Sequence to fold (338 residues):
Amino acid sequence: MILIDEEFQNLIPALTQEEFAQLKENILSEGVRDPLVVWRNGDLTLLDGHNRYGICKENDIHFNIIERDFKNREEAKTWIIKNQFGRRNLSPYERSVLALQLEDIFKKKAKQNQGSRTDISPTLAKSLDTREEIAKLANVSHGSLDKVKVIQEKATEEQRERLQNGEESINRIFKEINNQKSAWYQSSESDDWWTPQALFDLLDTEFGFELDVCASKENHKCERYYSNKEDGLAQEWKGSCWMNPPYGKTIIDWMKKAYESAQNGATVVCLVPARTDTRWWWNYCIFGEVRFLRGRIKFVNASNSAPFPSAIIVFRPEVKKENQRILWWDKWCGKDNI
Fold:
């Protein structure tokens, strides 16, 4: 007996009514030409051919199967997504959604391999290369992946439907979301700047972040995060932490908290403007590892590159001023931002 796994089925973009009607007509007149693909994991779990299977069951039509062997569910999901990339009728939006799901699988696997250690430093460019590789598989740009990630978290059902139906482009819907004045963090005058996913991934490969200390439902980078409601400044920071703080007057409070949390055993990695003339820079940044980034970052919620240079500040446990390092960090090529 063939089993339908809901999680596997949800990975597969639905056919339009017209596509389903055409498929049904073909099967009723010609039978099933392509075998269904199943995974024998004790049972026969369907991986590819859900629409064909439903039509065949309803009309008592014979079909053949091919069995695939996988070590675990993650491998099976990876196969399903890569197999879907072969569909010519997928929109750029659907391809991007699949690519983000595949990226999540790869990230989870990488973190499992790395474990909880933060002293392991794999090739830093690997994360960026992986994202570009996934984007290439999906035949989309990784800039599109950044935008679709925001769309998935913020778009209305009506906006998503317009994307799925091909009525609007990814750029158009992203701009609509970006222009929603009700969301203060989207305003061009806001002090909140959303981290480019590629930059975060590069650092996540090195540090294995467990907590985003200053985020929102729409832009958080870690599964665990503190939003305005939780008030990250009032919380205890432990483990490996990511911080992209508000760039306004409160940034000094966030830098102080990052520095103090490192003194208490946390590792805090901060993305901040390279404002070396400010009090918060001289009070706290000089005690961390400073990585100056090439070019100007194009933040996810901005139409153009930032009007300021940026730097990564790394506060490690019990860091001392004499251990400070300053790097011109060429691991971040910034090629899409300059």
User: Anything to note?
Assistant: The chain is about 40% helix and 15% strand. The beta strands are 2-3, 36-40, 44-48, 65-68, 211-212, 240-243, 267-273, 289-293, 310-315, 326-329. Confidence is low (pLDDT under 50) at residues 118-125, 181-190.
